[in-house]
Amino acid sequence: xxxxxxxxxxxxxxxxxxxxxxxxxxxxxxxxxxxxxxxxxxxxxxxxxxxxxxxxxxxxxxxxxxxxxxxxxxxxxxxxxxxxxxxxxxxxxxxxxxxxxxxxxxxxxxxxxxxxxxxxxxxxxxxxxxxxxxxxxxxxxxxxxxxxxxxxxxxxxxxxxxxxxxxxxxxxxxxxxxxxxxxxxxxxxxxxxxxxxxxxxxxxxxxxxxxxxxxxxxxxxxxxxxxxxxxxxxxxxxxxxxxxxxxxxxxxxxxxxxxxxxxxxxxxxxxxxxx
Length: 275
Ligand SMILES: Nc1ncnc2c1ncn2[C@@H]1O[C@H](COP(=O)(O)OP(=O)(O)OP(=O)(O)O)[C@@H](O)[C@H]1O
Ligand SMILES: [Mg+2]
Prior knowledge:
Structural class: alpha/beta
Order of helices and strands: EEEHEEHEHHHEHEEEHHH
Oligomer: single chain
Bound molecules: adenosine-5'-triphosphate, magnesium ion
Radius of gyration: 21 Å
Number of helices: 9
CATH architecture of the largest domain: 3-Layer(aba) Sandwich
Strand content: 15-25%
Distance between the termini: 48 Å
CATH class of the largest domain: Alpha Beta
């Protein structure tokens, strides 16, 4: 069952003269087993929307359910793991182990099972196990974010929601984070990422939901998103579309010049093999 946002409106300044809708009758779903990217201008309501997924905010009107449970219920909260933009907000342990162990130990996991859970989660996000004894605040920004991610994974969520996870990371840390998200997806966890730069998650993205002024602007595949967005990057999907129209079987998910080049070379090799 999915996360269902049904006709949700929200305002931070209820019953005051400042009241204006930050979310304006939003309806959307997060389907099981997808990698959904939420995009939109600054202040368009992205963070506000995802805070409804785990009941941090309650709708002014409308309803949010997670696998049929009201999003504010304990059952729903257990299903949704949330990584905020600044990992410092989520780390508090004296050691990385304490941090990653926090959620599973709250759910009653202990002893060897807990230790395995922690090391599995660290491994999944690409961190070395021996980082467990270090104080989290002694780590680099990128590694702190991965520790926070491991802590959420250790709680075995069904849905993982990340708000601007690559903000402030250098290119190497961004790659490590992308790799970690790829591993997380491979375990079958549904992922929702809020980002300003879809390129950071493009190879993983299956669907885009874009907002403007608290309203839905667009939803569709990444390719459809680029075609709907006036920018140079749409040239490549347009080219791929033209090739398809000519009967050439190009793969999905080709966005960059490099990817287009590789794809054209692949097709060339295939047709040479058939001759
Ligand atoms: N705690 C709050 N109290 C009052 N207004 C808020 C609060 N949080 C956000 N807002 C306002 O609600 C609107 C939507 O904010 P939100 O943070 O959801 O947008 P966003 O799309 O995540 O933006 P960004 O791209 O900057 O992260 C903005 O106008 C913002 O100023
Ligand atoms: Mg935000």
